[in-house]
Design a protein that fits this description.
The structure is a homodimer.
Chain A (H helix, E strand, L loop, with lengths): L3 H28 L6 H19 L2 H14 L7 H16 L4 H24 L2 H20 L7 H7 L7 H25 L14 H15 L8 E3 L5 E3 L5 E5 L6 H19 L16 H15 L3 H14 L1 H4 L4 H8 L13 H20 L7 H13 L25 H20 L3 H6 L4 H10 L9 H9 L6 H14 L4
Parallel strand pairs in A: 1-3
Antiparallel strand pairs in A: 2-3
């Protein structure tokens, strides 16, 4: 006779399978699908999304959850089962507020919107995308209203990606960050020693870029037996279970850094997803606990490791050997400075560490206004450009590299962007802790050895999957809550040195 | 207020979506999935397969079907709606006999078996695959027994792929074919003018093979906006709806013909799937009506078109231009003879037209014995080799190129192989009709024009999707039933001429 916990796990396993199947369909949509496949794919995602939701919010799950909660009461509160019940209770309570028909319809609408974005971006055609976007935003607002009352409608949107986070907290942290980040960027522009990165914009063979990225991903510890890399318009990581965690990258012939750092970034996500304890597979606890924690992993491997002097003292000779004509006259110090050049720019995913969060603040401001309905989609391009001018001093020449640059809104990910900035902050908090725990880390990185760093992350972060909520996990690991100070310290120290600001 | 027909279509649309999602997962499994993904994928396919089946056999579908049948009674019996109801009634009656748990379990077992086959074949390791195969066959027998009583257990297996076909009919047709095919092959070996095909086995660049295959697929009329080509261990065609019909091919550096003819073959399947009327999309009537009719399309484009003198009089100069060092000293007549060389060989998918059906008869004999349980899986390799000796005079040097060569059994496709041979016969029946209707066809093919052939197939076969059962479709198009005579006439005439048998 199976226990209620076992029966609950069985039902949740089916929900997991359906969501994993959706993830495969979405991955395929971005990586492989021919244009004609869009309408059928939207229908498939809608049906599966609705079925996953229906199965999850069924009375049967509710009854098993109630009973399993009784069984779990006597367990260690940090055991897998106790944590599973706790997380499922939270998710179930939320999900019961959303009708299955709504979930199916939202999957359909956002699949079509994503197809429209894929066509609109290269054509620089915001007008054709706008009606889709308006529909997505309207449904996202309806979604948030299922959770009324709230302090702010945006809170319900944030909660999907960062459980418990409020718009007011994000605003407070951003207000702490903004003046010092803006001051740093200004100081660099006014007083910094100029950095030359022209050699990063020569012709770089795409196949060699691919090979170098794969070499780094492997060195970091990404397991290609349980994953693969592909190309897509927007790099992303996706998981279909512990045995199949995939990354995508994009490649430009005249921007060497794009593929390298996006591969590092997605590898950081993938290492987190590949690192859950096997017992969490096919349960809601598999994978990361929140997007900000996830982003702390990707940004750590991309920036704290991948844009460090130590890393390139080991890997630069390898890169030179692949691209001798472009790099033979460049020394590692010049390369280090070039890949850390601070320059306000249009594209978030290519932004340097000092300006990155400003791209996020821009999106956060717009999303707040969209959530409140004080901004109309028709005016989004001009508002985007106005904020771009205000925060970064730039005006996009077109929408392609402006408001159309990110896939997120088309997929309904409103409330997602702030987690990118918070990920930077958390990465810095973790990094201070790691440096204290692993005194030889820099020497290891210089030798191309990442084993003890990965082991540390596996032990303290990865293995737990979604067992601990983000705030709780942070408390366990760094002994405190979210703070902007470590990241500001890191930025000011690193870029002060590079730009000779002292 | 929607009609019952509309409500039935809505429910069937969801079943369609689930099956299409399974097809995406299966395509990904063969084309992309890393090895570690197998267990999760098996669970996903199991859950979705079970849900699709449960949804289809639900009482709700039954009630709407009953009511829709009333509505359809007053319609033209050849209308989409009347045909939909008729087909769904047949499928529903069958499906209700199979428990949903069985369907889920079979999907899981066969997904794992397929993974085991993928590993076992290159390793020439039948022993590791045998337990999976035994499990698949046992479940396939259980499946057939849901339809007892039957004349032969194999009838229920055939019916999944070729509605209404019986083992006794297959046996009768094969008995008609066998003596004349065997006599033809013997005559060629004893009295035929020798054919040299050594130049087909030189080094052929894989990328150029790919490009040439794509050129042919495009010329045939395959719409890449609604499809794509990939590589896989076993070439196949799959459809996720009218807008996304994909083909795969395999490539060997020293066997030029493999990629060319498998691309033509899969393109033939894909043209059928891309050719349904748009109103059939997302219904059970989309796509081919049976596997034998499907195979008639693939074999027609591969052999009747693709291995004809007319085709190569147009395309051989293109091939020479791609591979000058290998082909400049070869004339088109020598090339035509080489690609039609008759030689008993080990691998079905590489077999020439004169020996191909013998490969099928071998499998049919084994499947009958497996269905009857008079043959044990442990003895399959030796029985395979014995039949190979009997029918083709050859002994496989290993299981890799013997009993392990096909993916079909691992996926549970027992009862499928005969449709390949029947496809050859039907292709010949259609071809006689087409030649009568399109007197300029050979000249058009020589000019690389396939438009009127495709238009003929669209009109008489493709557009109808699954509206007409195979026997009925054949009756409508050629005015008679299945016959071996046109294929035997075609073989004896073509190869008599090539080999100077007069």
């Amino acid at each position: 006779m199976p226990s209620h916990l076992e029966r609950l796990r069985h039902l949740l396993g089916e929900v997991f399978d359906l969501r994993a199947a959706s993830a495969v369909l979405e991955w395929d949509q971005q990586v492989n699908m021919p244009p004609g496949g869009a309408p059928n794919r939207a229908a498939q995602l809608s049906t599966i999304g609705r079925l996953a939701h229906e199965t999850f919010i069924s009375d049967e799950v509710g009854a098993e959850l109630d009973a399993a909660q009784g069984e779990a009461a006597s367990l260690d509160p940090d055991s897998d089962d106790a944590r599973l019940v706790r997380k499922v209770r939270r998710d179930y309570t939320k999900a019961r507020k959303v009708p299955a028909e709504f979930v199916g319809e939202f999957a359909r609408v956002s699949a079509l919107a994503q197809g429209a974005w894929t066509r609109a971006r290269p054509a620089d055609d915001f007008a054709s995308f706008a009606p889709h976007l308006e529909q997505v935003f309207e449904m996202r607002r309806q979604y948030a209203d299922f959770f009324a009352p709230y302090d702010h409608r945006y809170d319900a949107m944030l909660d999907d990606f960062e459980p418990g986070l409020k718009a007011a907290q994000v605003k407070a942290v951003f207000d702490e960050l903004r003046p010092r980040q803006v001051a740093l960027v200004r100081a660099i522009q006014e007083r910094g020693r100029p950095v030359d990165d022209a050699f990063l914009h020569l012709d770089y063979d795409l196949q060699k870029q691919w090979d170098f990225g794969v070499e780094i991903a492997r060195a970091y510890g990404y397991d290609f037996n349980r994953g693969r890399q592909d190309k897509s318009a927007h790099p992303f990581t996706t998981s279909f279970g512990l045995g199949d965690v995939r990354i995508t990258t994009r490649f430009y012939p005249k921007l060497l850094t794009s593929s390298i750092f996006s591969t590092m970034h997605e590898t950081g996500h993938a290492l987190y997803d590949q690192g859950s304890k096997p017992s969490l597979d096919r349960t809601p606890l598999l994978g990361g606990t929140s997007l900000a924690i996830h982003e702390s992993q990707s940004r750590m491997w991309e920036n704290f490791v991948g844009r460090s002097r130590a890393f390139w003292s080991g890997f630069f000779p390898r890169l030179q050997a692949l691209f001798p004509s472009q790099l033979n006259k460049v020394d590692v110090e010049a390369f280090y400075r070039a890949i850390n050049k601070v320059q306000p720019s249009l594209i978030r995913v290519e932004a340097d560490e000092a300006t990155y969060n400003l791209h996020i603040m821009l999106r956060f401001d717009l999303e707040l206004a969209l959530a409140e309905k004080s901004l109309d989609v028709r005016h989004l391009p001009e508002q985007w450009n106005a904020k771009m001018k205000e925060y970064l001093g730039l005006t996009p020449p077109d929408d392609k590299d402006g408001v159309l640059q990110d896939v997120h809104w088309s997929t309904g990910y409103m409330g997602y962007f702030p987690t990118y900035a918070l990920g930077n902050l958390i990465a810095a908090q973790l990094w201070e802790r790691i440096q204290a725990d692993l005194p030889a880390l820099h020497q290891e990185i210089a030798r191309g050895q990442f084993g003890s760093l990965l082991a540390w992350l596996r032990e303290h972060i990865h293995q737990h999957g979604g067992k601990f909520e983000p705030v709780e996990l942070l408390q366990r690991v760094v002994g405190g809550g979210l703070s902007a100070q470590p990241y500001l310290r890191y930025l000011e120290s690193k870029f002060g040195e590079i730009y000779g600001l002292s």
